[in-house]
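Ticket opened by: R.M.
Priority: normal
Category: complex prediction / small molecule

The reporter submitted a protein together with 4'-deoxy-4'-aminopyridoxal-5'-phosphate and asked that the result be attached to this ticket for the collaborator who will pick it up next week. Submitted input follows.
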Amino acid sequence: MDGIMTSQPNNLEAFWMPFTMNRQFKKAPRMLVSAEGMYYTAQDGRKILDGAAGLWCVNAGHRRPKIVEAVQKQVFELDYAPAFQMGHPAAFELASRLINLMPGDLDHVFFTNSGSESVDTALKIALAYQRARGEGTRQRLIGRERGYHGVGFGGISVGGIVSNRKFFGSLLNGVDHMPHTHDKAHQAFSRGQPEWGGHLADELERIVTLHDASNIAAVIVEPVAGSTGVLIPPQGYLQRLREICDKHGILLIFDEVITGFGRLGAGFATDYFGVMPDIVCTAKGITNGTIPMGGVFVRKHIYDAFMTGSEGAIELFHGYTYSGHPVACAAALATLDTYQEDGLFQRAADLAPYWEDAVHSLKDARHVIDLRNLGLIAGIELEPLPGQPTKRAFEAFLKCFEAGVMVRTTGDIIALSPPLIIEKAEIDRIFTTIREVLATIE
Ligand code: PMP
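Result attached by the on-call engineer:
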């Protein structure tokens, strides 16, 4: 107790910050103390325009009253309830609401608390499904280079980012990676989906030939790769992946942790591209970022395959203490109301052409070597400073923040994904700021 009472409120040392240069940050911290709508307020009182929806999650904008009130009400009523052999109404209501948003027969949802948990849950369901249907030799998983699927061991194994993998031992066995779909020589400055590259899906055939389909459980991809710099799938690519998976009885998993809940101007990338995966991973926008939550959607044949054994047996040995947490469910229900009442998915679709023009207005901005966009998402790729990769983009991030605009960077790419409530004048401000900042950077 003494320790609690005497701890220094402003000591930054104790918190080991994630994906952060801790020592550098703690010398010059960027603290956010409140948020509303499109803006954060920094500790020094400055308003910061949120060009990243927090971390790709605050799709309806910050501190929406309906969500805040729903959370408050739920905490007072039912602070926590387990979901193992017990239930509470909000979880069932939320599941029913969510599956109505999903296309086709993606009609069951397993609740998690994050994108990473959704990915590991999806991979486990895929493996267990293959066993349940008598195809237990199908144990291999296929991911993709430059894929980001969170930080669980499953996610980093199928993920394709070397720095997220190389420090952590031997990872999962039996994982292959398809090549990523980005090629500047053929795609630079494409508007929307690049025309070139649909054939890259045929790499999946090569992997199937190598191992035989009877050994392969599932393929996982982000429909649009976000965290490695906004890589837009080439035209026809996702359709081709679906065809190859169908041909060989392989499950197709879409990791829609970023693309879900309106980011592309449709409910899900699944709708946007018209490609039906077997499993969809979600998180982030499910609660507008307010409370941690994720959900894994599965098609009917998958759920049904688990429901054939004795009724007295647990069908899937998997779950989290906080699966379907009542407060998260309340936040998610109010978030869905907010998306629907404000027509935010359609709003994103309507704004997308304006956004596209704004993105491509940077074509002649200093250091820019590629621009990519889809829905309300964009990647601005900078020429790396010779011998110092990532430095230029990080400096751009710092200077944008100073100028009152929050962007994200990954490698030498600036990634943008504003809340879907953004106004045109705010879009203009983001791109004007980036142009001006880039002009001042070495
Ligand atoms: N998958 C994708 C596609 C993501 O973008 C992310 C997070 N950026 C994750 C999984 C992991 O989500 P979380 O950080 O909530 O675990």
